[in-house]
Structure formats: structure tokens, C-alpha cells
Amino acid sequence: MILAIDTATQYAGLALYNQDGVLAEESWFSGRNHTIEVMPRLVRMLAQANLKVADLTALAVSLGPGSFTGVRIALSIAKGLALPHKLPVIGVSTLEIAAYPLQFQNLPIWVILQAGRGRIITACFGQGEEGWQFLIEPHLTTVETLTGQINQPAICTGEIDAQAAQVLQRGSDHRALIASPATRLRRAGYLAEIAAQRLEAGDQDDPDALAPIYLPSPSVSAS
Fold first, then answer.
1. Is the pTM of this model over 0.85?
2. Residue 119, C-beta contacts closer than 8 angstroms, at least 6 positions apart
3. Which of 51, 80, 86, 126 could form a cystine bridge with 135, CB 3.0-4.6 A?
4. Is 134 inside any structural domain?
5. Nearest to 65 by CA among 148, 134, 165, 156
6. Alpha-carbon distance 175 to 109, whole Å?
7. Parent domain of 50
8. Do residue 87 and residue 196 come from a single domain?
């Protein structure tokens, strides 16, 4: 049983995942309340599934980029559960989680995360020489500037409100195709499934060495 924890931005998520798929999942807008909201919901989810920490086989955690504080909350919880129980931990990029449900599309996928003060964190995914990969590396920008980077039809997903969707479509001359609100939701179930695939391939991280992913600018924060 994999427990997935994502608190990388103001949206948070938890999921329980086994060989049959998602057993339980919760996604919600937490704002800046991760510290007081995540653990009670985690305890409740385990109780409702009639599970204990000892029943878990692995932890999956979103490593960022995102909020400086938010990323560290999930990582601290994951390490706190994994180390005493000697559980493997899988760390996954926040951007990869958001792009995951669209990986079989034939168009480039732009993922957007809110970074505060009118800025966004974005990256472009697509099929390259090494399979599913970054076509454009994560960087800090604005929605208005991003429209100039979308020079061919592409799907935009992630944390996009109605106003940003309009800017993306108009500024890109409608080359930007906005994923539906439900598709744009970054789900902990996706995080857990990515982790399950990595575990099956024999790939896991060292919990002691696992660290948040931050962009070079120290000012990048969604909190």
C-alpha cells in the first residue's frame, strides 16, 4: 500500500494506492493551512481504510517546485513515517504529477503552478528522444510572457483560473488549449501511480538524501 502526500502548492492531496489502484483519495484547496490540515486528514484516511502505518509498503511525495514551506511539510511527514518503519520513499516533481494524465496526447503539455505576486512556474512536457520528458525546463515567468512561448498548438494544465485561461488563449492566438478543470487538478492518485511504476522498475530514493526541488530564484514561493 502506497501513501502519497502532496502539499507543494496551495492545493493539497493524499491518496492510498495498491495493486488494484486508488483505494482512497482526497484533494482540496488548503491555502496556507497545510500544517494544521494534512495530518488529521491523513489519520482519518488511514482509519477509514482500516489501515495502520505498519500496513504501508512505500511513501510517495511531491518534491516541488512550489511553496518553500509547503514542499517541506510533505517531505517531513514522508520521512517521519518512512524512516522508523524502513519504508521506501519515491519523490516526484510537482510538474510531472500535473502533466501525468495528459502524457499520451500528441501535443506538447504546458504545466502551470502559481508562484505568487503574479508569477507562475511552468515547464513543457512532450515525447522526445528519451520518451516522455521536459521539452522546456521549469522556469519562473508570467502568464502573459508564456503566451509568447506557445508557438504551436499545445495543451495547458495545472493551476489556471478563468482569467489566466482567457489570457493564454487570446495571447497565443488560441494555440493554447486549456484542459478541463477536473483534468487540471493535480491528484495525489497520479503521484501514487508514478511511484508504483518506479517501484516496479526497482527505482526508489534514499529518504535521508531526498530534498525539495526549488528553482534557482530564492524568491519563488506560492506561500
1. yes
2. 140, 141, 142, 220
3. 126
4. yes
5. 134
6. 12
7. 2-94+187-200
8. yes
